[in-house]
From TrEMBL:
Pfam families: FeS_assembly_P
Name of this protein: Metal-sulfur cluster biosynthetic enzyme
Residue stretches making up the MIP18 family-like domain: 9-80
InterPro entries in UniProt: Fe-S_Maturation_MIP18, FSCA_dom_sf, MIP18-like
Gene3D superfamilies reported for this sequence: Fe-S cluster assembly (FSCA) (3.30.300.130)
SUPFAM superfamilies registered for this protein in UniProt: Fe-S cluster assembly (FSCA) domain-like
């Protein structure tokens, strides 16, 4: 998979907002990896801010919706992992500023 394709996929994922925090999942550091195989199946490895996050299914649905808009993507497989666990350190500078976190 090319870096351009990876950038396109991450760009699409920046449209997915965590409803609780109001910041996108990329800047929150929730997306650990994106891949695209030869068949056009996109695999997203991500986590959620908390294990009991009630917005998990909504976020996964939004991820699928955004990635399916890319012509190269035929199918989306979202893999939610809990290791490594998410922490505030994963957040971009933008996310920290938006949420007032130091």
């Amino acid at each position: 998979m090319s870096q351009d394709m990876k950038d396109s996929m991450m760009g699409a994922l920046e449209n997915v907002i965590d409803p609780e925090l109001g910041v996108d999942i990329v800047n929150l550091g929730l997306v650990y990896d994106v891949e695209l195989d030869e068949e056009g199946t996109s695999k997203v490895t991500m986590t959620l801010t908390s294990m009991g996050c009630p917005m998990g299914p909504q976020i996964v649905a939004n991820i699928k919706q955004e990635l399916m808009e890319l012509p190269e993507v035929k199918d989306v497989d979202v893999n939610v992992v809990w290791s490594p666990p998410w922490s505030r350190d994963n957040m971009s500078r933008y996310a920290k500023m938006a949420l007032g976190v130091r």
